[in-house]
Amino acid sequence: MNKNILALFVLGCASFFIILSCSQDNDETGFIGRMTRQTSTEGDSTKNDSTPVILPPDETGAAPYVSFYSIDEEDTMRVTPGESQTAQAPLLITLTGNVGNPDNYNYICEWRIWSTADNGSELNPLVTRFEQNTTYTLTKSGGYGIKLYVTFSLDNDTIEYESDPINIVISESKLTCPDGFSPNNDSINDYYRITAQSIVKLDAQFFNRWGLEMHSATLETAMHVEGEPNKLILWDGKHNGKVVSDGVYLLHLDALGSDGIKYKIKKSINVLTGFREGQETETGGGSE
Q1: What is the helix (H) or strand (E) element at residue 11, kind and residue range?
Q2: CATH topology of domain 32-41+48-170
Q3: 250 CB neighbour count, 10 Å cutoff
Q4: Confidence at residue 277, expressed as pLDDT on a 0 to 100 scale
Q5: Mind giving me the DSSP string for 95-117?
């Protein structure tokens, strides 16, 4: 009689242990992210090839990020999956896969970049790149999503990795031009500076009253003002190495914003080396 009771007790404990183990497996499956494995079961009709098995992402996967030089921070900014960042155009971004592969699988990377406007998604990307590390330039304002997909394979074992989206927002354009400047080397208003936000193309010429070109500048040759990310220096007031004479000069400026706005500005510019502290005046230039 005692032996029968003992056997029933042992059987009950074993059943409870099996139920508990199954419950723990289900909890683990719900906790781990989007890492799936499919292993070939050739010759075994009792297994289903399409049934995914979740793997911990620290075994085989990736930790992708997007980096770009930030004028605001004067440093390189890094954006990881699930994060969002705002920047100006044109924006050169570097996409880094940072693939982890301890078991030396073969793998293929796929980056997708898409516009979030009009409910866009990774299903209709603007660009697809099959490289672990690559670059791309964003030139239009609006929101963008970026994802990395990695397919690992070794013999009959396949693992699929999909990152969370990385989000980048390109700001709308803005362009204003001042009426003049005073290149007298007093560290105040010494340069002709414009406010230029998300301007992707720019071509500017300065002429004297007789139509002789004194200086020209493009987006590539203009300099950013330290600590003022929306300010561009177009002219230091010099022609052939010397500061020009005081007077009125003419600015012709054509520019294109990241939002498609075209700026055509023609205005008079006052060069007044006699101006000192407190004389700076800025008014907005128009767009057509």
Answers
A1: helix 2-31
A2: Immunoglobulin-like (2.60.40)
A3: 16
A4: 55
A5: EE--EE-TT--EEEEEEEEEE-G
Task: Judge if pTM exceeds 0.85.
Answer: no
Q: Are 224 and 202 in contact (CB under 8 A)?
A: no
Residue 288 near residue 263, CB atoms below 8 Å: yes
Is CATH 2.60.40.1220 what the domain over 174-271 is classified as, yes or no?
Answer: yes
| Range 8-18 average pLDDT | 41
Could you report the per-residue pLDDT of 29-68, keeping only the tens digit for each?
332 235 555 544 444 443 444 333 334 445 678 999 999 9
Residue with the bigger pLDDT between 15 and 213: it is 213
- Per-residue DSSP letter, 129: E
CA-to-CA distance for 175 and 80, rounded, in angstroms?
Answer: 31
Secondary structure in 3-state letters for 28-42: HHHHCCCEEEEECCC
Neighbours of 70 (CB within 10 A): 16
Note whether 32-41+48-170 and 174-271 share their fold.
yes
Structure tokens of 232?
């561009």
Assigned token pair, 201: 């193309």
